[in-house]
Amino acid sequence: MDGAHDLGGTHGFGPVDRSQQQNFVGEWEEKVFGLTLACGMQGKWNLDQSRFARERMDPAHYLGSSYYEHWLHGLELLLVETGLLSAKELESGVAEPAGAFKPVPRERVRGILEQGSPTLMECESNAAWQIGDRVRIRNEHPHHHTRMPRYIRGRCGEIVQHYGAHIFPDAHSESGEKVPSHLYNVRFSGEELWGDQAAEANSAIYVDVFEPYIEGPAS
Amino acid sequence: MSDHQHPHHHTAPLSEIEQRVKQLETLLVDKGLVDPKAMDELVDTYEHRVGPRNGARVVARAWTDPEYKQRLLEDATSAIMEMGYAGRQGEHMQVVENTDKVHNMVVCTLCSCYPWPVLGLPPTWYKASSYRSRAVSEPRAVLEEFGVNLDPDVEVRVWDSTSEIRYLVLPRRPNNTEHLNQDQLAELVERDAMIGVAVVPVPTEAAA
Question: Is the pTM of this model over 0.90?
Fold first, then answer.
């Protein structure tokens, strides 16, 4: 979706503010981080679905709030959408009933983190593109979750890597299904993306691109 | 004078968001969705166990062990796993090498993707709108703000983390460090150099 989260190339945010160097500002951020990961271990949603929950925040609220507020918003939305909590429980703060689920215990946390969630998959179809091919990215604006940033749409670049097939994020978010899709790294010149006037000299942007995002050969 | 003056120390009242989080935490624990001890373990992992010192050890080894460096550039996930670092947000790693002709930097314009097993959690600025918007369109200007001034003939390569591949920059080894061992070299490598927004400085003793 073309939400406020898709920030590449947007103007007006000013210099990078490096004044805050800790992981968490205040205890509530730490809590939001811990609650989000702990609830995620219930297995009711995947990473792309949690990204999509944050992306659906009202754009003005998204841009005007801190990072962990995005996480808090996403977590509350997912808890209600997956039925782990009712809207009424979220509102009142009272569990009805209490003890309805079994939490992932502390002893299992380290193992789950160390295992991670690899996305590499077997794929029956061959990769459509070879390293060195020049391709054009589709100009599409889906309303669902996608990992095709706006600034590459309709643009041409060169395939520089093939990473094998990985879980296609659009479908992963929409249906929860793990559909394999060939994944490439595509090199775009600064001039191709930003035009001769705005682009900085001697710069290139490397973007991971799933095969369905590619329209065809660059003409 | 008010008769409500208490002798004890007042703590600031909870803000709206602090209250909201506190209520949610209580609810999730009551509901059986969250084990408070599991939460502590999660926070402790990234506050104290997993952080940029891991990445620094990978970099220092690559600087001193050419065979390791080759493995790291060819199959970063396995080479990093050799050092004992793997897992969430580092399932598929790619290492990009800085040279005298190429400078790499990493961003996630769509959210905050970052290689947790080797760098820990991302700094606030990495997740903020300014860095996410500008790193792809004016990387040299951003680098200058970080104090990195590149020659015009050095190509800047910006890696936007749009898939589950996570990028780590292998910075250039500074001059005058031939006498340092791997542990001493690792001490020189800061987080920002592995994101690609800093260079590793020549150690002061060596420069003197």
Answer: yes
